[in-house]
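Subject: design request, 198 residues
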């Protein structure tokens, strides 16, 4: 074997060793996680866009407690003010602030739904029922988007911490772990208690 033929064998071996060091897999998985985060934001934006229509319909259909509607409006306004850029996904404080703002909207919507149960004539309005269906669908989309985002974050975080990708992640990319989305509502793992006797 001469030097010339050995050189042609070194090139594929070098390319293969570089590909196994996270040069391509780390940014690919990082971009996948960021794309999933965009889906989470889109689902929350859909909810934010739907809420004003829901509130206006509810106002016109029945005399619901003013405080409940105002809390929904205020929570929605606050939630749209909290922005989280893809570069902030490795900052747990910023992710938690975003989650808290969205949790406040969910809490306000829960109070609105309890009020709806107290006013049967409101539920009979076809438009309101349509909006409630849309809102339920939106909440399901949010849950799916969060699940998909957390899966992408887990995949990315595992990649940047395991050999051989850790080499490219630390040396070439300076990769930091991303923060997964988590429940911010206390006792979120327990079903809410609904009491119509009050």
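Subject: RE: design request

Done. Sequence follows.
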């Amino acid at each position: 074997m001469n030097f010339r033929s050995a050189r042609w064998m070194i090139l594929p071996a070098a390319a293969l060793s570089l590909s196994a060091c996270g040069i391509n897999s780390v940014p690919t998985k990082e971009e996948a996680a960021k794309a999933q985060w965009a889906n989470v934001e889109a689902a929350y934006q859909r909810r934010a866009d739907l809420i004003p229509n829901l509130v206006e319909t509810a106002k016109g259909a029945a005399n619901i407690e003013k405080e409940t509607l105002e809390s929904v409006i205020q929570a929605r306004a606050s939630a749209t003010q909290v922005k989280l850029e893809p570069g902030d996904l490795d900052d747990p404080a910023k992710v938690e602030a975003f989650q808290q703002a969205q949790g406040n909207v969910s809490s306000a919507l829960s109070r609105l739904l309890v009020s709806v149960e107290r006013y049967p004539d409101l539920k009979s309005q076809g438009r309101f029922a349509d909006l409630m269906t849309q809102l339920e669908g939106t909440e399901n989309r949010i849950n799916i988007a969060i699940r998909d985002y957390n899966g992408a974050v887990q995949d990315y975080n595992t990649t940047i911490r395991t050999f051989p990708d850790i080499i490219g992640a630390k040396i070439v990319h300076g990769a930091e772990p991303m923060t997964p989305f988590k429940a911010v509502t206390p006792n979120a793992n327990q079903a809410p208690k609904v009491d119509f006797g009050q």
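Helices lie at 3-19, 25-61, 66-81, 92-118, 120-123, 126-161, 165-173.
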